[in-house]
Amino acid sequence: MKTIVLAACLTLVAAEAQAISRYDPTHMSCGKVQSTIARQGAVILRYQSKRVPGLPLYDRYVQSQQFCTMGEVRTRAYVPSADTKSCPVYNCKRPDNDRHFRRRFFHNN
Known about the structure:
single chain; globular; KTSC domain-containing protein; signal
């Protein structure tokens, strides 16, 4: 019985991960990118790197903190769009607590 419940839970998690939509923001206006994220809650944006030709860049962008997993915070990010080089959006990142520790430790000694 435990095996069936576990399998059902894993299936639901896998289905949720596959349901997220993917877009190329360089074919959309900045307003369209932002409204798409707001409407769907979370999307994957995929585009080509400007610094390294042929290198695809992608990440998951979210509407609000509720779409981040435990331990992550919503942070400001920028993606290229059809009408601007830096369209402001949000993604989820783990806070860099080490950086604050190093700053306090090395500056106080």
